[in-house]
Specification:
The protein is α+β, with helices and mostly antiparallel strands. The chain contains ten helices and 16 strands. The strands form three sheets. A twelve-stranded mixed sheet has the order 1-3-4-5-6-16-7-15-14-13-12-8, sandwiched between helices. A two-stranded parallel ribbon has the order 2-10. It has a two-stranded parallel ribbon with strand order 9-11. Helix 1 (about 10-20) packs across helix 2 (about 35-40) and helix 6 (about 165-185) runs antiparallel to helix 9.
């Protein structure tokens, strides 16, 4: 590795300074969207000296980055237990076969004093984590439910289709329209008696509904925290992507990215809460909460109504019950699922048998 290589821990205080100087969003690759960085420093559970990332810099260019996210574990008592999500880890191609990736990862763990959570890892990095002092605390499937052929994925998997990509686009669009038509018929008037209240942040009534449903979540939830988590300030819509001089490692900007949050109301009473992100053709579920189980399918119908209206081609969720209910009652082209395992560092001591790592925990998309 070069003698000019420097590894730096980025605190919240430093991130604010980077934002003020616009130091990371000029050219080449940015560690995260500027909107995400601005949103991150608004989180009051992150102190000024908490680390939000580790960056390796060479000749004033970023060559490696780990995104760290300070959070509070739900201990079911008044004790505050801080831990750090480490969900994104990037190394420049020129250093892929070097020790830089492992080095920067170990540095990040040291900065957190071994208080680390991993949202989910797949088989391709299982060997790496097997050599580290981590324990699996959750195992779940991540589902992608497709409602069209998905042109981009087909071209990516089958390069030969590039020759007829115009026809593939037409077939993809046609399939999407047919599936939406069938699902619209299946939906019919199921949500006729339901009304929606769209919100940017939680009010007292919504928090009163959500609070008991999150009592056993891995991450400690408050009204302020969820309002911050579902805030649209973390996203930035850009009409002309090709005119932006830099690329981002994390999602947060596109020509249509937006979050929608709504209370599901029946007979003047909240029966459910839905929060989802639209980005390109993706419908990414952040929160899907239902009070009484007798209203579960009705709330699924509400989600499907919004999917159909959005004309997105696939749903992304870690919620197995939600995925199975949709595929049982509505038409999908196919479902892709991959097993994800949540980890905790062995020095991060808490009773993880009393809490559940759910879709909404560590969901910072």
């Amino acid at each position: 590795m070069s003698e000019d290589l420097e590894v730096v821990g980025i605190t919240k205080k430093m991130l604010r300074q980077i934002l003020n100087k616009n130091a990371s969003w000029k050219d080449d690759i940015a560690p995260l969207p500027r909107s995400k960085a601005s949103w991150l420093i608004l989180n009051d559970r992150i102190s000024e000296e908490d680390y939000c990332g580790v960056m390796a810099i060479e000749n004033k260019k970023m060559v490696a980055f780990i995104y760290m996210f300070p959070d509070l574990i739900n201990t079911h008592n008044n004790e505050v237990k801080k831990a750090y999500w480490m969900n994104d880890w990037w190394v420049h191609e020129k250093y892929k076969d070097s020790v830089l990736g492992t080095y920067i990862y170990n540095q990040a763990i040291k900065l957190t004093k071994n208080q680390v959570l991993i949202k989910g890892y797949t088989e391709n990095v299982e060997e790496f984590y097997s050599k580290l002092p981590f324990t699996v605390i959750a195992s779940r499937f991540r589902y992608t439910l497709f409602f069209s052929l998905d042109y981009s994925m087909l071209i990516g998997r089958f390069k030969s289709l590039n020759k007829i990509k115009f026809l593939v686009k037409i077939l993809d669009a046609l399939t999407g329209k047919v599936v939406r038509f069938i699902n619209s018929k299946r939906l019919r008037n199921k949500t006729y008696e339901i009304s929606y209240d769209y919100i940017n942040e939680l009010d007292d009534d919504t928090w009163a509904f959500i609070k008991p449903l999150c009592e056993n979540d891995l991450i400690y939830k408050t009204k302020a925290y969820i309002s911050w988590q579902i805030s649209n300030t973390q996203y930035l819509q850009i009409p002309l992507r090709h005119k932006v001089a830099y690329k981002n490692l994390n999602a947060g900007i596109s020509n249509n990215i937006h979050i929608h949050n709504l209370k599901i109301i029946k007979n003047h009473k909240i029966i459910g809460f839905l929060s989802y992100v639209i980005n390109f053709n993706e419908f990414n579920v952040k929160y899907f909460l239902v009070g009484d189980k007798k209203n579960y399918e009705l709330c699924v119908d509400v989600l499907m109504e919004h999917l159909i209206k959005s004309k997105r081609n696939f749903i992304f969720t870690d919620d197995s019950e939600l995925s199975k209910n949709i595929t049982r009652r509505y038409v999908t082209v196919y479902t892709h699922k991959v097993l994800k395992k949540g980890l905790v560092h062995n020095d991060t001591n808490f009773d993880y048998n009393s809490v559940n790592m759910l879709n909404r925990d560590g969901h910072f998309y």
